Every structure is written in structure tokens, then in C-alpha cells.
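Figure 2 data, in text form.
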Amino acid sequence: MPRLALTLALTLTTTLCAAARAVDPDPKGLWEVEGGGTLEVTAARGEGRYHLRWETPGGGYEGIGLQQGRRLVAAWGPGAVGLMLTRRQGDGWVGEWTTLAAGEATGGVLGREAWPGAALEGERDVTGARLDGRPYAGRVTVARAGEAYDVRWTIGAGERHVGVGLPVDASTVTIAFGEGAFGVAVYDLGGVEGVEGRYCAHGADAVGIERLRRLSRDPAGRWALEPEGTVTVTPAEGDGRFDLRWETPTGPYEGLGLLRGGRLVVGWGRAPAGAMLVRRQRGVWVGEWTDPKVAEGRSGLERWPAATLVGSHAVEGRNPSGTAYVGQVEVTRQGDVLRLRWTVGDRQHHGVGLLLDADTLAVAFGVEGFGLIVYDLRTGDRVEGRWCTLDDGAVGVERLRRDPR
């Protein structure tokens, strides 16, 4: 082979091998937890950031994750819980960190932290930058606690934090920090469909094992509608967003769906409406929403501090563009249906909702002539959807069968 051709071939082979190595496993989706429950992983703002939600017999848990190659590291706990991934670089350790509560508000920006000294254990100075860029300095102590690490920070004159850490590899450690009940996990995504994770709760020396199996819940494709008609589901821009089109004897309908936890929440009508999934988290209702006007498929977020769902609540939210808004939402009940009315500034918005369980509400919102349908995709190729409209308090049922064509 001529020298030039050989050089080009070697260069191309090296490039292709590097590209193949650069493709990391995708953790997004719904996973079955061995022993009972599910784990849903969705993309969060910022490169390599993920939001995790466990549904287990013992209750629901929220978490934040960072991906490093084929591994996903995660922290779970209350909204203030944070996650750090620190690596040994030269004679020191350099870390990146984020929090469950502040990660979305900062647009996915990571905090930074540096520790001198090649050894992990011991006490030393620490310097860093917060999520808003402000610098900080103090001391950090790392001590072995069984198979895990106990980590304690003192920042400035008296700001204190505690954490629990697990080794990711010989030169990388991940640390969860927070208050109350929280912990850290490291998942190896190298399996084709099965994943094994190591986890440790703060205050516990022992490390447990969690095994996951990916559940296929892709709604994309053509579905036969009983007794007559079809529904076509196509992926839309953004994580877990889908466009829907019904062809029925009464005419066509369009919808926009948000897939979360094996359920597809759809706002539908003669034109698509918005869709929202609201979950209760430690006395606060937290909603993720999207609508047909959203650019790049991003989601908005909304919080209602309220112990009960029905009533009038203050609203704090963030639009998909990143701008903030405040207002009120009034939730009333009509039969099996919930009605919502938002007041933001001098504008009002209306919605209709269905409770999926005691802590989860699905909502469609729009201008007029719209409705909500929620499909449970966990039943395989035969799917049932519950639907309602803004104008009626009754709930209907729609049955679909996946069309193999």
C-alpha cells in the first residue's frame, strides 16, 4: 500500500475507533428495580446531567445524576441534596458539583472545587466556585467509613456540610451531600439491558447493590383505535416529547405528549394543547410542562407549596427559555376531573387534570376546545388511556392496539 494511503487508512481507523469510544451508553428511560419498583431517568439541563425518580414500595425518591463514560453517579434525598464528582489530577483533587434544587435554575452550570494533596483521606484546604460563580474557601475532611467515605466541609466562618462518598474507579470518587436522609449511588451502564449499581446512605457504612432492567416503553408508531380509527405517534424535539395524530370517524385531532414514568400525558384537540405532569415532593407540588410553542423541546418547571391539591396556591415557575414567573393557581374538583386556572400577571390560563395516584397529577392546558388523555404504556402492545375535556367532568376510556405494520 502506498505510504499516503496507509497514513490515511491509519488516520481513518484511529478516528473511527475514537468516535466509537466516545459514544457513551444512554441512561435515559424507565428501569425496573429488582425486588420491586421503577427508576425513571430523564435529561436535565446541562451536559451529562440527569434527573432520577424512584418509585418503590417504600415511597418515591428524587435524585440528580452526572454521567462519566459508562457510569452514572447519583445522589438522592431532599431538594437540597447535592452531588460531586471529584477526580485526582496531579497532586490534588478537582471536583464538579450540582444540586437537585438549584440545578435547573442555574441552567445546568456546575460548581467547581479543588483539594490539594494526592491522598484522598485527611484534612486539607478547599477552594471552589458556587453555581452562581461566587468563590468560596474553607476546610474539608475525608475519612474512610467502612466501604464508603465520610466527608465534612467547613466553609468560611461557619457554613458546614456533610457527605457520603463512593469510589468510581482508582482515581475518581463521587460524593452526595445534604441534610436528613440522603445517599449516593454509582451505576455501571456497560450491560446491554441490565445495570448494576452500588449505593450507600449517609451514616451507613455498608454498601448495597441495586439491579435494574430496562423497560421498553417507546410509544412511537401506529396504533389501532377501538372500535375504529388510528393514532400515529412520532418523536418530537426534546426528551420524552411526542406528536400525536388521531384519524377518527368524527375527524382528525392532534396532540402533544410528555412521556414520564411509563405514562404518556397528552394535551389534545383540533390543535395540540400543552401537557404537564405534577408530582408531590415533601409538601410541594412540582410540575414539568411543555406546549407546542416551546423551542428546542425544552420543558418548563413549576412549584406550588401546598399540603393539599384542591385550593388556591402561590406559583413559582421557570419558562423553557429560562425566564422566571410568579402567580396563583386555583384547583377545583368537578366529578372525577380537576380544573385549574392560573393567573400570571394580567393573563389567565386554564387546564384540566386527572389524578394518577395520590401524589401525581396529569394536566392539559390551552385556550379552548382541548382535552387530556393519559396512556399507561406499561401494559405493552395493548394500551388503555383515560381522557377528559375542559367542558365536562366525566372520564372516558380509549383503547389502543399497536399496529405491527
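Caption note: The chain has two domains: 25-215, 221-402.
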